[in-house]
Design a protein that fits this description.
Length: 259
């Protein structure tokens, strides 16, 4: 499955948010979208589902215009978890996760699919609790489980590690990395982006400023231009890709540490 953004343009409140963003997913890989606040990362992924409307360019899913898909057809192909975690009604976690079954056809083993998703994300222990009584991190895990139940071949995740402690951040990123699905992820944590993503798109001024492997995108020059800090992606002594930032401690004295 391939999702392509071709010169996407978005204007909100008279302000141009996206000015020709072009990128695509990679089959079975995790592709990250990074950039400073306000660069249009979340806006871009919301255009896929009509949450935000684009007025220029095209979005194609396997070569077909995204606007030609019904909501159910789109849900059967793409599991989406956004930043908004608000829930208006007092559903149980099991009920919320079960809503993902809407995207499937002729479901006969729905209960088993829901239980499997709850167990996969390690949240079966509070399956019968109210979604409104969960912490932000627990609620995030429930929404990821709902996306899993949809049975889609692709995930789009907007800050999936937000509100999660470090253990669950790594748990979620490990899961997404190894689930075998085509994944497009908006992420702020450059260390996680460097370590987990197979490919990165760096947004600036409403379009792609740099793209490629994390080590090629997170260069000192690119990071300074987009994030206005000193930093770069590099490998540890064990060959693991990490992200480093610099702090100026005194004139001519630069200290390096991990983000």
């Amino acid at each position: 499955m391939k999702l392509s953004f071709e010169g996407v343009e978005v204007k909100l409140g008279g302000r141009e948010i996206l000015t020709g963003a072009t990128m695509q997913s990679h089959e079975g890989k995790m592709v990250g979208i990074i950039g400073a606040n306000g660069s249009g990362k979340s806006t871009l992924v919301k255009t896929v589902f009509g949450i935000v409307h684009y007025h220029g360019g095209n979005i194609l899913l396997d070569g077909k215009n995204i606007r030609s898909f019904s909501p159910k057809e789109l849900a059967s192909r793409i599991g989406y978890v956004g930043q908004d975690q608000s829930v208006a009604f007092d559903f149980s976690v099991r009920d919320v996760v079960g809503m993902g079954l809407f995207a499937r056809k002729n479901v006969k083993n729905g209960k088993a699919l829901v239980n499997e998703a709850l167990e996969s994300l390690g949240i079966e222990r509070f399956a019968d609790r109210s979604i409104q009584k969960l912490s932000g991190g627990e609620r995030k895990m429930a929404f990821i489980a709902r996306a899993l139940v949809q049975g889609s071949d692709m995930f789009i995740m907007d800050e999936p590690t937000n509100h999660l402690d470090i253990h669950h951040q790594l748990f979620v990123m490990d899961y997404l990395k190894n689930c075998g699905k085509t994944t497009l992820i908006v992420i702020h944590d450059l260390r996680l982006a460097a370590h987990y993503c197979d490919y990165l798109y760096m947004l600036a001024d409403g379009k792609v400023y740099a793209e490629g492997a994390p080590i090629d995108v997170l260069t000192q020059e690119n990071v300074e231009h987009v994030f206005r800090i000193g930093g770069y992606a590099g490998k540890t002594k064990k060959g693991v890709l990490d992200f480093y930032i610099f702090e100026e401690e005194s004139e001519g004295d630069i200290h390096k540490h991990t983000n």
